[in-house]
Amino acid sequence: MKKLSARRRHPLAAVVVLLLALACTGGLYAVFAPADKAQAEESAQSLTIEEGKKLYTVGCASCHGTGGQGTSDGPSLVGVGAASVDFQVSTGRMPAATSQGAQVPSKKNIYSQAEIDQLAAFIASLGAGPSVPTEEQYGPEGADIAKGGELFRNNCAQCHNFTGKGGALTHGKYAPTLEDVDPKHIYEAMQTGPQNMPSFPDTTLSEQNKKDIIAYLHAVNSDETVNPGGLELGGLGPVTEGLFAWIFGLGAMIAVAVWVAARTAKAKKS
Amino acid sequence: MSTTETTESRSRGKAPAGERVADWADGRLGIYSLAKANMRKIFPDHWSFMLGEVALYSFLIIILTGVYLTLFFHPSMNEVEYHGSYVPLQGQLMSEAFSSTLHISFDVRGGLLIRQIHHWAALIFLAAMFVHMMRVFFTGAFRKPREVNWLFGFLLFVLGMFTGFTGYSLPDDLLSGTGVRFMEGAVLSVPIVGTYLSFFLFGGEFPGTDFVARFYSIHILLLPGIMLGLVVAHLILVFYHKHTQFAGPGKTNKNVVGMPLLPVYMAKAGGFFFLVFGVIAALSAIAQINPIWAMGPYRPDMVSTGAQPDWYMGFSEGLIRFMPGWEVNFWGHTLVLGVFIPLMIFPLVLVAIAVYPFIEAWITGDKREHHILDRPRNAPTRTAFGVAWMSLYLLLLVGGGNDLWATHFHLSINAVTWFVRIGFFVLPVLAFIITKRICLGLQRRDKDKVLHGRESGIIKRLPHGEFIEIHEPLSQDALHTLTAHEQYKPLEIGPTVDENGVERKVKGSEKLRAKLSKAYFDEDGQIPKPTVEEYKEITSGHGHH
Amino acid sequence: MSSQDIPEENLPAEQDATVAVADEKHPFADPGLPPHEHRIQDIDERAAKRSERTVALLFTASMLATVGFIASFVTIPHDKSIFVFPIGHLNALNFALGLTLGGALFCIGAGAVHWARTLMSDVEVADERHPIEASPEVKAKVMADFKQGAKESALGRRKLIRNTMFGALALFPLSGVVLLRDLGPLPGTKLRHTLWSKGKLLVNMNTNEPLRPSDVAVGSLTFAKPEGLEEHDHEFQTEIAKAALMIVRLQPADIKDKRELEWSHEGIVAYSKICTHVGCPISLYEQQTHHALCPCHQSTFDLADGARVIFGPAGHALPQLRIGVNDEGYLEALGDFEEPVGPAFWERG
After folding, report:
1. Does one domain contain both B259 and B319?
2. What is the pLDDT of residues B315-351, one digit of tens each?
3. Which of A193, A211, A226 is the last residue of a domain?
4. A60 assigned to a ligand binding site
5. Nearest chain C alpha carbon to A208
6. pLDDT (tens digit, 9 = 90+) per residue, A72-95?
7. pLDDT of residue A27
8. Cα-atom radius of gyration of chain A, to the nearest Å?
9. How far is residue B286's CA from residue A8's CA, in Å, rounded to a whole number?
């Protein structure tokens, strides 16, 4: 699974870069292009929204209402923004199973990135909200890892643990592990505050702060993280260390003690 | 100079070098008389008798590695900016204690290894003491003449807990700082003097700038000094009492059967030290412990989920987590029962197991020396009490990690907490009843074995068609071993009216004792072991299987 | 309560060690130590030689491991990390040093134990035990000596000496207790006050900028410190331990507690971040339920209802800080907390 998602990251990143490039050229073009071209852009945009609406009606409307106004089964989506849609759908949390437990878990995503973008465009058209972050925003360039660590311990560790291994909330809810979570999704989660997670908008946790946090997480909780002392034991602190000491430490001691105290094999009686 | 002296000195002068050194020492220290009693001291062989050695050796390892760590550790809370090898903390403000611990972990070659050996050895030290204590408990090795040594051992366990706690707090990292904050809250809850104690302990308000230095002297000097003394006393008493042994052929209450200290136990026990050290060193190469760099420096306004103490303090964490938040306000004062009650139950849990030997001695009224160990099944009530105590201890450990239980088994943390709340009262009772039943069942099986022999697994068809399993009679060794345990009779208070019709006053404590004695030793408390008559009746019967 | 009154017959009979042979009358008698059986090494010199070689091999392996330890120490850079399956990325030096040291020690131990088990005599020996209690003669002598000593000291007779000595011995430890006085200052009212006071701005912990109401969105979580408190300050740790603030914004309609609403600003409420149980920074805020959970001991507070305790061991609600907005549009405190923050204590009231 880890390998899969790691590989999937690359084409995804390529798509984002491509989109960026397209947007840039598009933007440049729009400045110089005749007005009718701009109109074509607009209609392309409305086409995307139209497509998104179709997807929405099939997959989301039963809970969130036909116009995204929300029902008793799901909150209003007016003003949640494209970032929220991208996070919820790409991590597989939405659409949710009809009978979920205390909290909607992440699962396999069933939409393509293009479909997610269409959905996001539709929801964004319902009311202004945070847009999907660009790689420039969550990428590692210019990030201060140490500052990120301090911010993480102040804002995130209380729920997600020192190095983002996750933790318990009330009544069966939980803060999920942050291992192998796409930096984009971490950024979006901070921005939008999915489910019971509070949001950390740019006004209180700046873009640079978010970048720092993501860089710190990559340093302490990724495939490349070095645990100098050896086995990480889940990174959960003294509980797993204690279990390990009892089972393997004391277990080895007892095994050795049994050998030391055991009687040596006797010569067979003839 | 007299003639005798010269001949003696000449004869000694001719002796080999080793002997001459020994002579020199004997003339000043009297080592020959000491060695006479101890050199060929007998130790019985049993793996469970080596658990105490695991504890002893890990204690020595802790002292050795601890001395090394003091060479590099700075017990100071001065704030410094970090500029060492560990990138994710570059430029962060932290105490010197924390930064010197990072220095040991990242910039002193082998420093991380010694730190990890020190910490793993500490966890194993406490675990080994715990298991050793349980071995002594369940085999009744605490009985006369070893009650004092039981108390020494118990004190070592308790002091070990606090030495561990103070050591865990020294690096001043975010996890241990949270633990110290918990301690401060607990101290504050003490009625009347709580705030004063807290201010004296921390040199003012929490966290202040003193506690690391203060914990340091407690951790490296005060507590280990007392423990070293107790360990020596503990070992002297083990030598003096001679080791206990399990019942078996040739083993009586008046002897001890095993191998001599020189050479077998010198090699086995000495070798075992290296084995224990080797295992812990390998463990420290493979498994990381207490990665303080991942936790970051302590800040009283920061925290991580999953904040737990090391395992030996886990049961106190369980106590504090399941307690409801009771608080009483009166006349301008606050009684913080939600914290103070767990703080009081904490020593009670420990004392309950510590005083048990004295309670049992009072119930049996037995004043003889005991050197033959009980099999746990042959003391059902004691075993049941021990298991009930352990179940409580274990439940509190679970309660101390309730958040991890919740996340890893997909439970509600509130449900886990409620389970511990109810289990605290129910589980020990259940464990007691079940354990006693199992012990009685095992006793019955032993009795059957003695009377009817061992089930051989061979099925035989009798002439009239009935199938029976052949029972083989036990060897004399087994017969003796299974019937060697002693059984008490329940204590009777006797008639409350004497022969002259005068009422005799029976004290309440005496009644209680009779009641307890009955619970321990009547038919519901133990299965009477086979008597000679029963055995003869069955074995003399013809054709009996 | 002595146990002298336990009748002898309640105690089990001492084992009869004199009967060594099982007979009609004593079917369970102790058959005595089983005869010694020889090990292979005792009768086969080749097996003994093999054992000797094994022991020597183990000791040699230990020497090699020590050489390996020194070689690793000298050659491996202290910051080199390697990937070891299945453990993961780890520090190469720690791994090498630990394994070689462990190997060196383990081999010494294993060699010694193997030697003891296979080549040293394994004949079991019985050692007599002697009662620990002294004989009556010894006891009588000790008691007599003690009485003699006590008499010669005249302690019992010269009561004045005895009483004053006890008095002196009982009093002098007080000096030690008095010496502990300067361990710390007296509490005074320090636990009742924090750095907050009227007009102090709420400074965002993350950006170190004062907060405006528009910065704080509904459903967001922000931590704040009082204006003027900087991380480099000498008293920072002690002050932040009391002054740390948790700021959330609720829909004013969701606020159930009247006072909470009054002390809030446009739905923005400021609560102490320090748990009232034992002082952990409580900040597991669930924005949908408005509950804040303490990660240490799971006390749960309802931030929409005066932060009252709804689960767990905390005894009272989180203290709320009364806030408003100053002329420049920044959030400011309208005074200190009205009750002590953090864990409860005797004088709290």
Report:
1. yes
2. 999 999 999 999 999 988 999 999 999 999 999 999 9
3. A226
4. yes
5. C207
6. 888 889 888 899 999 999 998 988
7. 57
8. 25
9. 32
Q: Is A233 in CB contact (< 8 Å) with chain B?
A: yes
Partners of chain B (3+ Cβ pairs below 8 A): A, C
Q: How many CB atoms lie within 10 A of CB B239?
A: 13
Q: Residues B135, B56: one domain?
A: yes
Contacts of B402 by beta carbon, 8 Å cutoff, 6+ apart: A168, B318, B321, B322, B413, B416, B417, B420, C298
Residues B195 and B129 in one domain: yes
Above pLDDT 70, what percent of chain B? 97
Answer whether residue C250 shows pLDDT above 80: yes
Count the domains in chain A.
2
With contact defined as beta carbons under 8 Å apart, do B358 and B123 qualify? no
* Residue (of B477, B144, B258) closest to C127 by Cα position: B258
The pLDDT-based confidence of A241 (bands split at 50, 70, 90) is very high
> Is A200 a member of any domain?
yes
Q: Is residue B154 part of a domain?
A: yes
Q: Buried b / exposed e across B121-149, counting CB within 10 Å, b at 16+?
A: bbbbbbbbbbbbbbbbbbbbbbbbbbeeb
**Are A156 and A222 part of one and the same domain?**
yes
Nearest to B194 among C231, C299, C346 (CB): C346
**A216 lies in a domain?**
yes
pLDDT at C241: 94
pTM of the model: 0.91
How far out from the chain centre does Cα C67 lie? Answer: 38
**pLDDT recorded at residue C174:** 96
C30, C79, C349 ranked by CB distance to B334: nearest:
C349
Q: Is the CB of C15 inside 8 Å of chain B's CB atoms?
A: yes
For chain A, what is the mean pLDDT? 84
Interface contact A157, partner B, CB < 8 A: yes
Full 3-state SS string of A74-121: ECCCCCCHHHHHHHHHHCCCCCCCCCCCCCCCCCCCCCCHHHHHHHHH
pLDDT given for residue B105 in this prediction:
96
Domain that holds residue B97: 50-345
Residue A183: domain span: 133-226
- Among the partner-chain residues C129, C234, C281, the one whose CB lies closest to the CB of B254 is C129
Claim to verify: residue A207 and residue A155 sit in the same structural domain? yes
Whether B391 is in a domain gets the answer no
pLDDT tens by residue, C147-169: 999 999 988 888 999 999 999 99
Domain count, chain B: 2
Question: Does residue A253 lie in a domain region?
Answer: no
Partner residue facing A229 (CB), from C94, C221, C286: C94
- The more confidently predicted of residues B13 and B481 is B481
Which residues make beta-bridge pairs with B454?
B472
Give the CATH number, domain containing residue A198: 1.10.760.10
Find, in chain C, the residue whose alpha carbon is nearest to that of B273. Answer: C109
In a domain, A101, yes or no: yes
Q: Would the CB atoms of A158 and C283 count as touching at under 8 Å?
A: yes
A156 is in an annotated binding site: yes
Residue of A nearest to B111 (CA): A229
Residues A198 and A145 in one domain: yes
Domain-embedded: residue B448: no
In a domain, B94, yes or no: yes
Q: What is the ipTM of this complex?
A: 0.92
C92 → chain A, closest CA residue = A228
